Each structure stands twice: as structure tokens, then as C-alpha cells.
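Quick check before the chapter quiz. The format below is the same one you will see on the exam, so make sure you can read both the input and the output lines.
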Amino acid sequence: MSTPQPLEEGPSKGLGQISLLSHDARLKGRPRLCSDCGLCDSSLKPLMPTACVFVENRTAAIEQRLHGRARRPDDELRFGIHRAQYIARLRRPNPKGQWSGMVTALGARLLDTGRVEAVITTGAAPGTRFKAQPVLARTPEEMLASAGNKPCLSPNLALLDEVRKQGIRRLAVVATSCQAHMLRALESELGLERLDIIGIPCSDNVAWDDLQYFLKTISRSPETIEHYEFMQDFSLWMRHEDGHIERVNYIDFPMDKLHGIFPSACLACFDYPNSLADITIGYMGAELGWQWTLVRTEAGEELFELLRPDLELGAPLESGDRTRGMPSYIERLTHPPGGKRPPLPIRRLVAWLQRTRGPRGLEFARAIIEMKLLRNLNYVRSKFARLESRIVPAAVYQTLAPYAEPYQRHIGRPLAPEASEALDP
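Here is the expected output.
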């Protein structure tokens, strides 16, 4: 068992390792891919083999049960099945919230109206701003206190035992996509009268030590960051205690120092838009300052209507052409991870082109989702080849089909699996 490196030396996990955090004894006995969703910390652990998305991805079967149909061959391949999508923001944004704070506001509204008795969400551990800690909010005030971005792995489903202990029958969960998969797979086992799943678009969470390392590597003043967001202008915005915003272009990230911080489970996830939630609230398909909301189920429609009086609605837009740059992106996947950055003048030019001519709105969402699918498919094939047939949904290959030729040319193998591979257990 390996020993984590000291924080100042680098990430706790390099890409050569194939578990979440191999030094964490708490994860013994779990699948080699583990997002630490919390299910295995609860009494429901014996059901993990039939629920875990990293044992078998059951998205297609769950969608059939949830919606009575499969995805249409359009944007639903990328975004998941949805009844409606909105560009919205709170009329009075929460300065402590993520984006405009719609997720926290919705959770508080559910508690205030009595639709649910509790909300499982993520708070910050005492004495920190970003260290994730599972929270069972019973009041609107407790829900609002959890506001803010905490992109760390958080075993929230461990609180399902506390839900049962407290006799809670109407529950909402602010869930990552892997947690939503577990909840849907076990929905009939939870003994709830109502389960509302508020999905957050989720990609590349990290362990707490690695988040500190990331901020230390990226920022000129990591100790004063009070909020940060990955934004639609291809940059990371970091708000400091004095109110000023520090911005770092994605192209300027020192990936030679950062490529080992992401857990293997996040690199083997194929549901960035959180398709099994009742409602997904994020940012990707909206302009700066707005939130992109996908209403997926009848329950999701009810959730959106609860929040609608507090919302300002905008118009969807899209511009740019993501497909032009995708062959180059596929080619870069063949390079060793963590390569050196281009020279500064080249980075400045790329950043300018991304902002002025790059995809925006819904086209930005399509681009980011497809890039994650390509990257993660390549990762699974290189590290977990025997698991591909079980954890990569068919919709991934359908979504990426337009890039089959450049994928074959640069990667040297077909994008879609051969029939014999698809049947390989």
C-alpha cells in the first residue's frame, strides 16, 4: 500500500494508481473504482454490488423505468432525458452560493413548505471553507448554511442510516451523479414516501488534501480564497476575502503538476449532466451569471415551479462550433499526461480565441460534455479495459460517433467496441 506524498510535493495519487486513494484503509473491500459516495458506510453496503455505477452502469435501465423510454438521438444523448430546460438565476443571488444559489434556495424552499422533512446536502467542515462534510438539514436555515462550492469527495449517502433512525419519510438529496445512480438503483429499498433528487453537474471532484494542493498551485494567495468557480469563459474565477477576483485561464493550468489529483472514479464517470436526477441545476449551457436548469421528471417540474417565483428567466443561446476543435483534442489525448504548457504568447492567443470564437451557451455544454466523454473513455480503456462493457453506457458511443474517424486515426482503434468486446464480461 502506497503512502501519500506530503502536500508540498504533489498530489496524493498519480495516474498510475487505480484506486481512489490507495492509502485510505477505510476504502478496503470496495470496488477498485470508488467515488466514496457513502453507500458503503451505511447499513445498505450489502446492496452495493447491485447499485454501484462502477460495478455496473444501469443508467439506461433506470431511465426506462423513470421515463418509460430511452434517450432520443439528439441532445438527450449528451444532456440526458429532460422535459424542459431553462436559463435562470435568482432575482436576489446568494453571495455565498454557487452560481446564483438556486440549489440551496430550492432545498430551503422544500423544507419551508414541508414537501420534505430533510435534505441531504454538503456543508463545509468546521474551520474550513471547502472541505466537504455530509449534512442532514432539517430546517431552511441549516440548508442555507450549506451554501457554496465544495468540490471535494463527500460520502453523503452514509446519512441514509440517520434518515431511517430519525424516521424521515420525505427526503430530498442534493446529489452528484454517482450518488443519484445509487439512489435510483435502491429507491425501492429506502422505505421513503418521497425522494426528490436535485442533481448538480459533477466532474473531477478531488480529495481534500489534493484540493489544497490545487489551490496552492493555481493561486497567488490560496489562503484568502473564499469562493471559486470554473466558468464558461474558459477560466477559473477565484474570489478573495477582499472581494477581488483572480482569474486563471484553463490553458494556463500547470497540468504537469496537476494531472494526478483526480480520482480514478471521476475519470471513469460518464454522467457529467447528472441525468438521473429529478432536476439538474448547473451552469454549462448558460451565459456568465446565469444557471442552466434541466427539468427531467414530473417531480422535477414541481421543484422548478416551487422556485419559479424567485427566478429571473433568460433566453437560451448557442454559438460557435465545437466540432472544429475536437480532432485536435482527440490527438492531445495521445500525449503523455501532464505535458508542458505552450509558451505564454501561444497561451494568450488560445485564451483569446476561446473567449471570442469558442463555443458558448448550449454549444459550450456540448463541447465540455463530449470532451469529458472522450477523455474518460480513453482512461477506462487504458486503466480498466475489462470493465468497459459494464461501466460505459451505449449512449457514450452514440454521442461520440461523429468523431469515429479522427478517433481511429489518432488513437489507433475503433471508437465503438467490437461486438465481441461488448459481450466480454
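If your answer matched, good. The radius of gyration is 21 Å.
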